[in-house]
Design brief:
Pseudouridine synthase, alpha+beta, 8 helices, single chain, 10-stranded mixed β-sheet, 241 residues, 27% helix
Protein backbone atom coordinates (compact mmCIF):
# COMPACT_ATOMS: atom_id res chain seq x y z
CA UNK A 1 0.00 0.00 0.00
CA UNK A 2 1.39 3.37 -1.01
CA UNK A 3 1.28 6.27 1.48
CA UNK A 4 -1.42 8.87 0.91
CA UNK A 5 -0.18 11.80 -1.13
CA UNK A 6 -2.03 14.09 1.30
CA UNK A 7 -0.22 12.66 4.33
CA UNK A 8 3.47 12.51 3.51
CA UNK A 9 5.24 10.17 5.88
CA UNK A 10 7.35 7.06 5.48
CA UNK A 11 10.78 6.06 4.25
CA UNK A 12 12.29 7.38 1.04
CA UNK A 13 15.32 5.70 -0.48
CA UNK A 14 17.49 8.04 -2.55
CA UNK A 15 20.39 7.22 -4.86
CA UNK A 16 22.74 10.06 -3.90
CA UNK A 17 24.99 11.52 -6.56
CA UNK A 18 28.62 12.60 -6.12
CA UNK A 19 29.65 16.03 -4.87
CA UNK A 20 26.70 16.60 -2.53
CA UNK A 21 26.31 16.16 1.21
CA UNK A 22 23.59 14.14 2.90
CA UNK A 23 22.16 17.46 4.16
CA UNK A 24 21.97 18.67 0.54
CA UNK A 25 19.75 15.67 -0.27
CA UNK A 26 17.52 16.40 2.73
CA UNK A 27 17.20 20.03 1.60
CA UNK A 28 16.22 18.93 -1.92
CA UNK A 29 13.60 16.56 -0.48
CA UNK A 30 12.15 19.32 1.71
CA UNK A 31 11.77 21.62 -1.30
CA UNK A 32 10.38 18.91 -3.54
CA UNK A 33 7.78 17.68 -1.05
CA UNK A 34 7.20 20.96 0.82
CA UNK A 35 7.85 19.10 4.05
CA UNK A 36 10.09 20.17 6.94
CA UNK A 37 10.16 17.00 9.06
CA UNK A 38 12.78 14.96 7.19
CA UNK A 39 15.89 13.27 8.53
CA UNK A 40 18.50 10.94 7.09
CA UNK A 41 19.93 7.64 8.31
CA UNK A 42 23.68 7.24 8.01
CA UNK A 43 25.71 10.05 6.47
CA UNK A 44 27.34 9.61 3.07
CA UNK A 45 30.39 11.75 2.32
CA UNK A 46 30.23 14.05 -0.73
CA UNK A 47 32.53 11.77 -2.77
CA UNK A 48 30.33 8.73 -2.07
CA UNK A 49 27.25 7.77 -4.05
CA UNK A 50 24.40 5.37 -3.52
CA UNK A 51 21.77 4.56 -0.95
CA UNK A 52 20.72 7.31 1.45
CA UNK A 53 17.67 6.59 3.60
CA UNK A 54 15.37 9.53 4.36
CA UNK A 55 12.71 9.36 7.06
CA UNK A 56 9.66 11.60 6.63
CA UNK A 57 7.07 12.69 9.19
CA UNK A 58 6.37 10.06 11.85
CA UNK A 59 9.05 7.81 10.34
CA UNK A 60 11.67 10.00 12.06
CA UNK A 61 10.81 7.95 15.18
CA UNK A 62 12.49 4.88 13.64
CA UNK A 63 15.57 6.80 12.46
CA UNK A 64 17.92 5.23 15.05
CA UNK A 65 16.55 1.76 14.32
CA UNK A 66 17.25 2.05 10.59
CA UNK A 67 20.70 3.55 11.21
CA UNK A 68 21.70 0.50 13.29
CA UNK A 69 21.43 -1.99 10.43
CA UNK A 70 24.26 -3.56 8.43
CA UNK A 71 25.55 -1.81 5.29
CA UNK A 72 26.96 -3.02 2.00
CA UNK A 73 29.46 -0.93 0.04
CA UNK A 74 31.22 -1.26 -3.28
CA UNK A 75 34.48 0.65 -3.28
CA UNK A 76 37.99 1.06 -4.60
CA UNK A 77 41.26 1.77 -2.86
CA UNK A 78 44.39 3.13 -4.45
CA UNK A 79 47.71 1.85 -3.16
CA UNK A 80 50.87 3.92 -2.83
CA UNK A 81 49.53 7.12 -1.24
CA UNK A 82 48.09 7.99 2.18
CA UNK A 83 45.99 11.13 2.62
CA UNK A 84 44.89 13.39 5.47
CA UNK A 85 41.29 12.18 5.17
CA UNK A 86 42.06 8.57 4.20
CA UNK A 87 40.24 9.19 0.89
CA UNK A 88 40.98 10.87 -2.44
CA UNK A 89 39.70 14.27 -1.28
CA UNK A 90 42.42 14.75 1.32
CA UNK A 91 45.96 16.06 1.01
CA UNK A 92 48.59 13.47 0.14
CA UNK A 93 50.73 12.83 3.22
CA UNK A 94 53.08 10.20 1.88
CA UNK A 95 53.74 8.27 -1.32
CA UNK A 96 55.40 4.87 -1.52
CA UNK A 97 56.28 2.48 -4.29
CA UNK A 98 53.67 -0.21 -4.97
CA UNK A 99 55.20 -3.68 -5.38
CA UNK A 100 53.82 -6.12 -7.94
CA UNK A 101 51.58 -7.84 -5.42
CA UNK A 102 50.12 -11.20 -6.36
CA UNK A 103 46.41 -11.83 -5.88
CA UNK A 104 47.29 -14.29 -3.10
CA UNK A 105 49.21 -11.58 -1.22
CA UNK A 106 46.29 -9.17 -1.51
CA UNK A 107 43.75 -11.80 -0.48
CA UNK A 108 45.87 -12.72 2.55
CA UNK A 109 45.69 -9.12 3.84
CA UNK A 110 41.97 -8.72 3.14
CA UNK A 111 41.37 -11.96 5.04
CA UNK A 112 42.84 -10.36 8.17
CA UNK A 113 39.89 -7.94 8.20
CA UNK A 114 36.83 -10.11 8.73
CA UNK A 115 34.60 -11.04 11.62
CA UNK A 116 35.09 -8.99 14.79
CA UNK A 117 37.99 -6.57 15.13
CA UNK A 118 38.72 -3.05 16.43
CA UNK A 119 38.89 -0.02 14.16
CA UNK A 120 40.18 3.44 15.11
CA UNK A 121 37.76 6.10 13.78
CA UNK A 122 39.32 8.68 11.44
CA UNK A 123 39.64 12.34 12.45
CA UNK A 124 37.18 13.21 9.68
CA UNK A 125 34.23 11.62 11.48
CA UNK A 126 31.17 12.89 13.32
CA UNK A 127 32.24 11.32 16.61
CA UNK A 128 32.44 14.01 19.29
CA UNK A 129 35.32 14.90 21.60
CA UNK A 130 34.20 17.13 24.48
CA UNK A 131 31.05 17.93 22.49
CA UNK A 132 32.90 18.90 19.28
CA UNK A 133 32.73 16.66 16.18
CA UNK A 134 36.15 15.32 15.21
CA UNK A 135 35.84 16.60 11.65
CA UNK A 136 35.61 20.17 12.98
CA UNK A 137 38.81 19.67 14.97
CA UNK A 138 40.44 18.17 11.87
CA UNK A 139 39.57 21.32 9.90
CA UNK A 140 41.47 23.31 12.53
CA UNK A 141 44.50 21.11 11.98
CA UNK A 142 44.06 19.34 15.31
CA UNK A 143 44.37 15.64 15.97
CA UNK A 144 43.14 13.96 19.15
CA UNK A 145 43.41 10.44 20.51
CA UNK A 146 40.58 8.18 19.34
CA UNK A 147 39.72 4.95 21.09
CA UNK A 148 39.40 1.88 18.85
CA UNK A 149 35.82 0.66 18.41
CA UNK A 150 34.54 -2.87 17.77
CA UNK A 151 33.28 -3.43 14.20
CA UNK A 152 32.32 -6.50 12.18
CA UNK A 153 32.75 -7.55 8.56
CA UNK A 154 30.22 -10.21 7.58
CA UNK A 155 31.38 -10.71 4.01
CA UNK A 156 33.90 -9.20 1.63
CA UNK A 157 34.96 -9.80 -1.95
CA UNK A 158 37.88 -8.58 -4.06
CA UNK A 159 36.16 -7.65 -7.30
CA UNK A 160 39.10 -6.51 -9.42
CA UNK A 161 42.82 -5.85 -9.10
CA UNK A 162 44.48 -3.41 -11.47
CA UNK A 163 47.41 -2.09 -9.49
CA UNK A 164 47.62 0.37 -7.90
CA UNK A 165 43.82 0.07 -7.64
CA UNK A 166 41.83 -2.67 -5.91
CA UNK A 167 38.04 -2.83 -6.21
CA UNK A 168 36.07 -4.58 -3.46
CA UNK A 169 32.65 -5.21 -1.92
CA UNK A 170 32.16 -5.29 1.86
CA UNK A 171 29.16 -6.06 4.09
CA UNK A 172 29.79 -4.48 7.48
CA UNK A 173 28.27 -3.41 10.77
CA UNK A 174 27.03 0.00 11.81
CA UNK A 175 29.87 2.39 12.65
CA UNK A 176 32.29 0.89 10.13
CA UNK A 177 34.55 3.35 8.28
CA UNK A 178 35.36 2.15 4.77
CA UNK A 179 38.02 4.88 4.40
CA UNK A 180 39.82 3.47 7.43
CA UNK A 181 39.44 -0.06 6.03
CA UNK A 182 41.21 1.09 2.86
CA UNK A 183 43.90 2.91 4.87
CA UNK A 184 44.55 -0.07 7.14
CA UNK A 185 44.78 -2.53 4.25
CA UNK A 186 47.38 -0.24 2.67
CA UNK A 187 49.39 -0.21 5.89
CA UNK A 188 49.27 -4.01 6.13
CA UNK A 189 50.53 -4.25 2.56
CA UNK A 190 53.34 -1.86 3.47
CA UNK A 191 52.77 0.77 0.78
CA UNK A 192 49.85 2.80 2.12
CA UNK A 193 46.47 3.37 0.49
CA UNK A 194 43.46 5.65 0.40
CA UNK A 195 39.81 5.19 -0.54
CA UNK A 196 39.30 6.35 -4.13
CA UNK A 197 35.66 5.40 -4.78
CA UNK A 198 32.67 4.44 -2.65
CA UNK A 199 29.05 3.49 -3.30
CA UNK A 200 26.55 2.27 -0.68
CA UNK A 201 24.43 -0.44 -2.27
CA UNK A 202 22.43 -1.79 0.66
CA UNK A 203 21.37 -0.97 4.22
CA UNK A 204 19.46 -3.64 6.10
CA UNK A 205 16.69 -4.84 3.76
CA UNK A 206 16.85 -1.69 1.62
CA UNK A 207 18.65 -1.93 -1.72
CA UNK A 208 19.76 0.97 -3.93
CA UNK A 209 17.72 -0.57 -6.78
CA UNK A 210 14.62 0.53 -4.82
CA UNK A 211 15.77 4.16 -4.64
CA UNK A 212 14.54 7.27 -6.43
CA UNK A 213 17.18 9.30 -8.26
CA UNK A 214 18.54 12.49 -6.73
CA UNK A 215 17.71 14.17 -10.06
CA UNK A 216 14.00 13.55 -9.38
CA UNK A 217 14.32 15.35 -6.04
CA UNK A 218 16.32 18.23 -7.47
CA UNK A 219 13.92 18.56 -10.39
CA UNK A 220 10.92 18.75 -8.06
CA UNK A 221 9.24 15.71 -9.66
CA UNK A 222 6.96 15.21 -6.67
CA UNK A 223 4.72 12.46 -8.09
CA UNK A 224 7.74 10.40 -9.16
CA UNK A 225 9.24 10.78 -5.69
CA UNK A 226 6.01 9.88 -3.87
CA UNK A 227 5.64 6.76 -6.00
CA UNK A 228 8.84 5.47 -4.37
CA UNK A 229 7.86 6.45 -0.82
CA UNK A 230 7.51 3.41 1.47
CA UNK A 231 4.73 3.54 4.06
CA UNK A 232 5.51 2.59 7.66
CA UNK A 233 3.54 -0.71 7.35
CA UNK A 234 5.47 -1.50 4.14
CA UNK A 235 8.77 -0.82 5.92
CA UNK A 236 7.74 -3.08 8.80
CA UNK A 237 6.84 -5.92 6.40
CA UNK A 238 10.07 -5.49 4.45
CA UNK A 239 12.16 -5.66 7.61
CA UNK A 240 10.21 -8.66 8.88
CA UNK A 241 9.29 -6.74 12.02
Amino acid sequence: MKPSKDLIEGVLLVDKGPGMTSHDVVAMARRCLNLKKIGHCGTLDPMATGLLILVLGRATKIQDLLMSENKEYVGALTLGATTSTQDREGEILETREVPEFSLDQIEEVFAEFQGDFDQTPPMVSAIKKDGVPLYKLARQGKEVKRDPRPVHIYEYKIDRVNLPEIEFTVLCSKGFYVRTYAHDIGEKLGCGAHLSALRRTRSGKFDVSMAVSWEALKGGRKDEVLDRLLSLPAVSRLRGA
